[in-house]
Amino acid sequence: MRHILSRAHGWASAYGTSDESATNWSVVEDALEIDSGDTTTGAAYKAIRIQKGDIVRFTVIVKSSANATNGLYLRIYGDTELDDLKTHISGVLGETDVQVVSTATTSVEYPFQRTNWQENVSVSTSWKDYTYDYVAHADGFISLVILNWSGLGVNSLYVKNPDIQVLASGQYSYAT
Length: 176
Hints:
Elements: H1 2-8, E1 11-15, E2 23-26, E3 31-34, E4 41-45, E5 48-50, E6 55-64, E7 68-79, E8 88-90, E9 100-102, E10 114-123, E11 128-135, E12 140-148, E13 157-159, E14 163-168
Parallel strand pairs: 8-9
Antiparallel strand pairs: 1-4, 2-3, 3-13, 4-12, 5-12, 6-11, 6-13, 6-14, 7-10, 7-12
């Protein structure tokens, strides 16, 4: 039942597992819980449409059930289009929810991939916010992907729903 709540909040299992039970909604934390049952798993937030030149600000708030010196990854993945019935994007082939398309299965050379936003960083038991401004280099779709990786061990990672804002629209010309 808790994985149904995570899906209703916009999340899908998207990295390292196709098991929906790895992404649950914690009623206590009012946040996504990337479950502690696996040391290499993650989730994607529903994709948004972007236009070339868009500046999209992602703000996400996370904490863990235990302090760790590494194990948190924040990434942006995208593609030029979404296949039928796909609503989320990830960067790994297979091991994802059925609603997730993987950029690893396309011929696109990752024009939207931003894997070094936060890579293998520490996480604590206190909420911390992370903000990143993404500049779209092409029209398409992008998803926020959060990984609870081996450095965090089998501890849970909690993620509040992201605040995603388009700060500037690509439909206008901008001086550079």
